[in-house]
Design brief:
The protein has about 260 residues and is mainly alpha-helical. The protein has helices at about 15-20, 20-40, 45-55, 60-70, 85-110, 115-135, 150-155, 165-195, 210-225, 240-245. Helix content is about 60%, strand content about 0%. Helix 5 (about 85-110) runs antiparallel to helix 6 (about 115-135). Keywords: Membrane, Transmembrane, Transmembrane helix.
Length: about 260
């Protein structure tokens, strides 16, 4: 039988990790929804920026006031301290929830094919990678205090105890850890999808409708009642009995004639 590569209606190599993987995905999605939600609009982003400047780890938000006071163009705020990052994180947490619900429905309806898993897992992996980059991300706004990694990720939270932001620092570290967990989970789902999409002789055998018709016809033949036969192997029907009666040859006597 000829083998053709199927892009759309492919089967998963393994299904159990796919099904059970939705449980940690649900827990992680709930966690990022809560953690990203409480940080909006600005729970500790600007505070961390100021604390980092006081500690000499990064630039200072005072540079914005300086630009306003001197009527100069506003500098580009580093992504790690921007409102854009906060809104982005909230958006991807909501998207993750809708994707999980949609995937659950598609799995129940048996239409969640590897090509869909490939697209969804790749997209969400990219989104969470951007979120990780933003949370730990560089601040080179002040040449005298460059920062390649945000201080609340790089340093211990004890360095900010005197600023009374230790709990917020721990929450930021926890948010960063959950984001990494979500990225790892989507990369795992992506690997399952890539594995299923990889050419495989067993999965590339076409399943034509003719094969199904052949199976159904075979089942119909098996369900039909069998015709009784006489001892000599001849079919035994009411018409046969009538003719044999006329000829005075009953079916049971034919074996002795």
């Amino acid at each position: 039988m000829a083998r053709t590569y199927k892009i759309l209606h492919r089967r998963w190599r393994v299904k159990r990790p796919l099904y059970w993987g939705m449980l940690p995905e649900l827990l992680g999605t709930i966690a990022v929804l809560v953690l990203f939600g409480v940080q909006q609009p600005d729970l500790f982003r600007t505070v961390f920026w100021k604390v980092g400047a006081e500690l000499g780890y990064n630039s200072s938000p005072v540079i914005l006031l300086y630009a306003y006071a001197n009527h100069r163009p506003l500098p580009t705020i580093p992504f790690v301290w921007s409102q854009t990052l906060t809104n982005f994180n909230v958006a991807i947490s909501i998207v993750s929830l809708f994707v999980l619900l949609g995937k659950l429905i598609m799995v129940i309806m048996k239409v969640y094919f590897p090509i869909l898993g490939l697209v969804l897992s790749m997209s969400l992996s990219a989104l969470y990678a951007v979120s990780i980059y933003g949370q730990m991300g560089p601040d080179f706004l002040d040449p005298e205090h460059p920062s390649s990694i945000a201080w609340y990720i790089r340093e211990s939270c004890s360095v900010a105890e005197r600023f009374k932001v230790g709990k917020h620092c721990a929450m930021a570290k926890g948010t960063f850890a959950v984001t990494i967990f979500m990225l790892a989970l989507y990369l795992f789902n992506l690997s399952l999808a890539v594995w299923a999409m990889w050419p495989n002789p067993e999965l590339d055998i076409p399943q034509d409708d003719d094969d199904d018709d052949h199976v159904h016809s075979k089942e119909e033949v098996e369900m039909q009642p069998t015709t009784p036969r006489a001892p000599n192997g001849m079919p035994f029907t009411p018409r046969t009995l009538a003719f044999n009666t006329l000829e005075r040859k009953l079916p049971l006597r034919q074996q002795y004639t």
